[in-house]
Amino acid sequence: MDQGVSRLGKVVLLGGSGQIGQTLARYFHGRGVEVISVSRTPHPAPWTTVAWDGKTVGRWTKCFEGADAVINLAGSSINTRFTREHRSLILDSRLDATKATAAAIRSRKRPPRVWLNASAVDIYPHTLAPTPETTISGYQDTGAMDSTTPESWRFLSEVVWQWEEAFRMEQVPGTRKVALRTTLMLSPDQGGVFRLLSTLARFGLGGPQGSGKQFVSWIHHTDYARAVEFLIEREDIAGPVNITSPQPLSNREFMRLLRQAVRMPIGLPAPAFGIQLSSLLLRTEPVLVLKSRCSVPTVLQQHGFTWSFPDWPSAVQDLVLGH
Questions:
Q1: Taking the model in full, what pTM does it have?
Q2: Would you say domain 10-192+217-247+293-310 falls under CATH 3.40.710.10?
């Protein structure tokens, strides 16, 4: 992480109890920033925690006054089966939190300077080609709705498009807006994706998943937090930004380097039909593993952001040591 004290004064995190929220809270708190974490289930922390219901404007809006940035990360987990009930929860929770954030900003005499709203690289179609922010202008243009794409994959793309559209349409005069098209953020925290993948690799189960040809876009947790701070400080950046490393790689290579880092020479592959079966048993969806995500961070690169861990070999070594 960056050393020294940040120039920022106050950052508010909505949905701050999740893995990304905790990562950002620790980072900014360590940099001397006043952190206020707003969530449905606030827990004691070294920073201020406030409760909200994710959709109703209430007393929690007072913490927006004079903030340097509000970062809305709220939304129900997609790591579940896409039943009708869960689909409604996944979409509505994101739209409700976005609308409530906008209303809270408009209610302040001294509104936040910038509003960063979570989004995802799942707005892009399944592709092996690099996808910068300029790849699409909206969900209808992605090609993600063609007949060859599994319906559950189309659902995720549609959710992200509607989420960004809701964010784009909200008027918050005087507050800059940035859509954080986040990829797979990897940290050694308990319960995170990296913990699961590295454990599988250590037990010899870290082979390629599906064909292994699908691309993995990823980012080290340190670079995620640094990129968010960079976007807060850069007043010339607005709109969608891919929050990824500059070097996506194939699933096959991603898993090979992970096995190498944990010193496991073998890794049993997980064929697509096996992933589909295990997804049923684990109550999740195959799209989380099998869809190719090859997003590249063109906006960050063009504005001079530098990564501490730009490539997977250096990142995975650091993550294994942190584990």
A1: 0.94
A2: no
